[in-house]
Amino acid sequence: MTNNKLTIGTRGSLLALWQTNWVKAELVKHHPQLAIEIKIISTKGDRILDISLPKLGEQGKGLFTKELEDAMYTGEIDLAVHSLKDLPTEMPEGLTLGAICEREDVRDAFIAAAGIDSFADLPEGAKVGTSSLRREAQLRAIRPDLQILPVRGNVDTRLRKLDEGNYDAIILAAAGLHRLGYTERITQYLEANVMLSAVGQGALAIECREDDERVNSLLQSLNHQLTRLACAAERSFLQGLGGGCLVPIAALCRVEGDALQLDGLVAKPDGSKIIRGARQAKVTEAELLGQQLAEELLQRGADRLLADNKV
After folding, report:
1. Is residue 38 classed as helix, strand or coil in its secondary structure?
2. Which pTM does this prediction carry?
3. pLDDT recorded at residue 63
4. Cα torsion at 39, 66, 12, 229 (round to 10°)?
């Protein structure tokens, strides 16, 4: 392998390809000598589309990442681009997050069928599509009358299912819609007091081999330190809760001057109980902040919610 060649691994969805091509363009902008190849790798999550993510249980670990990580171990690819929210909090041995890029919009987006102008306009018993337990719990807490139905597939597939009349509305990450040019499809942005986002939502993560000094050095030009700090607090919160459990967990960290503001929650899947908390800390204490908020929520009863919902 020559010093100017780089192979990036990615999933094959339109969103994954958009993200990878964006990373490629940024790398070339900062390092014009690079010759970058993109290699599409199918993951288990791309192939299993008939089972909702919560029902996959422990089989769902590394659902969208394992095959890409295997390709890094063998040297088939040098790095992989992921949505950070897809990455487990514990990195596989020998791999590291070489960069976390500047965050896009962290919010969830409400996309409704024609004639529904806002979330408040949803009729009683409306069908809302999401495969996220986090979204489902928060939706049920606000509107227990809604029918929450699973929806799998890439962004285009989910929008098509909405347009075909399978749902009255669906919930998707705003960042993915922006990246793919679907901003005009958004009926309403759901703010954090209504729908707290997933850990790492809106951020791109670039994974590489820990001992690959060349690649780690190249990736520093894409690393956004404030995003990295905020996401470190969120991921520490998730890890502190034992984040492998299939329980609705949400967190959002904001940088406010030289301080971090972290909001987090743990919920029952049916939305009947939600434990929320918030803490602040210096930007130098991101991981400690996440651990402390996790400990606080555990002491306030999140431990029982986690125990009740382990699969």
Report:
1. strand
2. 0.91
3. 66
4. -90
Tell me which DSSP letter residue 167 carries. -
* Separation CA 3–CA 213 (nearest Å): 12
pLDDT exceeds cutoff 70 at 239: yes
Choosing from 70, 78, 86, 303, the catalytic residue is 86
Return the closest-CA partner of residue 287 out of 257, 256, 253.
Answer: 253
The CATH number of the domain holding residue 239 is: 3.30.160.40
Question: Are residue 95 and residue 210 in the same domain, yes or no?
Answer: yes
Across the chain, mean pLDDT equals 92
Number of H helices and E strands in the chain, helices first, is 10, 13
Residue 196 placed within a domain? no
How far does CA 51 lie from the centroid of its chain?
19
Give the range of the structural domain holding residue 300, as residue numbers without chain letter: 225-311
Is 82 found in the same domain as 53?
A: yes
Q: Provide the token pair at 62.
A: 């590394």
> Does residue 197 belong to any structural domain of this protein?
no
In the prediction, which pLDDT does 221 show?
96
To the query of whether residue 86 is one of the catalytic residues in this protein, the response is yes
Domain membership flag for residue 270: yes
